[in-house]
From TrEMBL:
<feature type="transmembrane region" description="Helical">
    <location>
        <begin position="63"/>
        <end position="85"/>
    </location>
</feature>
<feature type="transmembrane region" description="Helical">
    <location>
        <begin position="121"/>
        <end position="140"/>
    </location>
</feature>
<keyword id="KW-1133">Transmembrane helix</keyword>
<feature type="transmembrane region" description="Helical">
    <location>
        <begin position="181"/>
        <end position="199"/>
    </location>
</feature>
<feature type="transmembrane region" description="Helical">
    <location>
        <begin position="147"/>
        <end position="175"/>
    </location>
</feature>
<protein>
    <submittedName>
        <fullName>ABC-2 type transport system permease protein</fullName>
    </submittedName>
</protein>
<feature type="transmembrane region" description="Helical">
    <location>
        <begin position="206"/>
        <end position="223"/>
    </location>
</feature>
<dbReference type="Pfam" id="PF06182">
    <property type="entry name" value="ABC2_membrane_6"/>
</dbReference>
<keyword id="KW-0472">Membrane</keyword>
<keyword id="KW-0812">Transmembrane</keyword>
<feature type="transmembrane region" description="Helical">
    <location>
        <begin position="21"/>
        <end position="43"/>
    </location>
</feature>
<dbReference type="InterPro" id="IPR010390">
    <property type="entry name" value="ABC-2_transporter-like"/>
</dbReference>
<feature type="transmembrane region" description="Helical">
    <location>
        <begin position="235"/>
        <end position="257"/>
    </location>
</feature>
């Protein structure tokens, strides 16, 4: 079988898995509703007690939209690949990929794309409904150029999160039962990305530090393109930073994976 056919087959496997586990996917969508509603009540209370009508620099409408969009975008960004990679490492499933002509990461990447193709279509519809309803109620309006920039930022953000997920999965080379580490790291990354709260609540110093890390470019940056917190002229340079982080993370992943494979092969895989 040619490599192109292998990659296509891998993509189809990811697509099939997404369809087979569609109930889990639907459940994950609904799992964002409760925490999002809880946050909406929280922000509503904070704005009612605000004398200026702003909280952390956000108006009521922009904060509500950020909260709703963060719930949707963070789900879209979720990689989830660390669980399957860790299972391959723990159970020895990685062995069959080491001897095959198709690279393991290329296989996982194609599966990831197949899985994300269905999810992206669903979330695109959800986002479209949110934006249309918000505009119809004069709550929120987005310029077409910002939608294009947002789409580009989301695609690049998904790739960043995918590489982060692969790097997190490498923990399984050293920890047999890595699920607790995944949960802790996943929560930390979600908070640092702005998927729980806007990063502005942590203060200017923390936001400045996070600008030098990849996390904010997965959720916080794309959403702020939509809500207008980033001026048009600053968007393209930030997209270039996203690309730079993809290259850096890919290099770091290769290095980390080589170190992990040495340990994996040393103990007999």
């Amino acid at each position: 079988m040619k490599k192109k056919e292998m990659y296509l087959r891998s993509f189809q496997i990811g697509l099939q898995n997404s369809m087979e586990y569609r109930f889990n996917f639907i459940l994950s969508i609904f799992s964002t509703i409760v925490p999002t509603i809880t946050q909406l009540f929280l922000w509503n209370a904070m704005f009612e007690s605000s004398a200026t009508g702003r909280v952390y620099g956000y108006t009521y409408s922009s904060m509500i939209m950020y909260t709703i969009l963060a719930g949707v975008v963070s789900k879209l960004m979720a990689a989830g690949c660390e669980w399957s990679v860790a299972a391959d490492i723990r159970d020895g499933g990685l062995n069959k990929y080491i001897v095959k002509p198709i690279g393991y990461f290329r296989y996982q990447f194609c599966c990831f794309l197949g899985q994300k193709s269905v999810q992206s279509a669903v979330f695109t519809v959800i986002l479209a409904i949110i934006l249309v309803v918000a505009k119809a109620n004069s709550f929120f309006s987005v310029a077409p150029v910002r939608l294009l920039y947002f789409a580009a930022a989301v695609v690049l953000g998904i790739l960043i999160n995918m590489f982060l997920g692969f790097m997190v999965s490498a923990v399984a080379f050293w920890i047999t039962e890595a699920w607790s580490a995944f949960l802790i790291l996943g929560l930390a990354i979600n908070i640092a990305s702005g998927g729980v709260f806007p990063l502005d609540i942590f203060g200017e110093k923390v936001v400045t530090v996070l600008k030098f890390l990849p996390f904010q470019y997965t959720v916080y940056f794309p959403i702020n393109i939509l809500n207008g917190n980033i001026v048009i002229g600053d968007i393209f340079p930030s997209l270039c930073i996203q690309v730079a982080w993809i290259v850096i993370l890919a290099f770091m992943l290769q290095l980390l994976w080589k170190i992990g494979l040495r340990k994996y092969e040393a103990v007999g895989g």
